[in-house]
Amino acid sequence: MIDQEQTFTSARSQLRSRIRNVTDSTFESVALDVFQFQSIFNPLYRSFLDTLRIDTSKVKAWTDIPCLPISMFKRHRIQTGTWPSAVVFTSSGTTGATTSRHLVRDVAWYDELALQAFERMYGQIDQFVILALLPAYLERTGSSLVHMANHFIQQSKHPQSGFFLSDYDEVDRQLRICAQQQQPTLLLGVSFALWDMAERGVTGFPELVVMETGGMKGRRREITRSELHTILSEGFAQTDIHSEYGMTELLSQAYSKGDGIFEASGTMRVWFRDVTDPFARVKDGKTGGINITDLANIDSVSFIATDDVGRQLKNNTFEVLGRLDASDIRGCNLMVGTM
After folding, report:
1. Pair 198, 235: CB distance under 8 Å
2. pLDDT tens readout for residues 174-189
3. Which CATH number fits domain 108-256: 1.20.120, 3.40.50, 3.30.70, 2.60.40?
4. Which of 42, 79, 183, 307 is close enough to 38 for a disulfide, judged by CB 3.0 to 4.6 Å?
């Protein structure tokens, strides 16, 4: 027992170091080693692989690693190893709905990699004023997005940085101050709140990054990302509207600097499956269900079949086109029906 614990601790430590420093050229080898690690020390994932009769020694490419259906986060405690959770991230949902629960062992790990992902795309966080317009998320507990935004605000170190529930007038006042100072500013907002602001007419300026995180939360009618970005571009006088793609079940993010084209962080990769056959890949440019490898999820599970649909583009970029309905994802549900 002691030997197994030592083996686990040593392997986890080495993998975390490699994940922290992962590059495009090392991603596959790290992913395959994380797969072997989780196939041994994650009981739920091990059971999933056994159900599929997967011989782990024959998995030689990161795109061949079986992805656990994301619905398992609603039904199980997903842990690699045994440890007390430092925080539990939860998804939003309607009253009475079962929500996802992501147990996080090390909050500092999440903070570190989330900041690394942002700065890889946008530069040093302390150059930005961070204005977080996140009603709905702030009105509940357990939001990973609120946690990330709070960390960014703290690292920003600008006194103007902060959260705004639904005080659109104050947000606009802060935007006017930043415009006068020619201050680089990130306005991170839930879609319906940004839409509300865009309709009011607000201050736009060249140093402003308007970033939507998705989610109408029942407050506005659902529209396509393209339609939303047109509204926001006009309302904020911006050529490009940025987007953040993340979820409760992930610790990594992807960002878009415009046109809804996302680039994943260094610890994250996506590939696309046939919506009726979870083991079949679709060709680049074709629509499919989004599978994600998230190396940051070293302590939960790194290989997830999401309920989102999108398509792969060139140079490891991708689009998110919407959600799969229940009939579309029946292939994944059948795999775990007896678990």
Report:
1. yes
2. 999 999 999 999 999 9
3. 3.40.50
4. 42
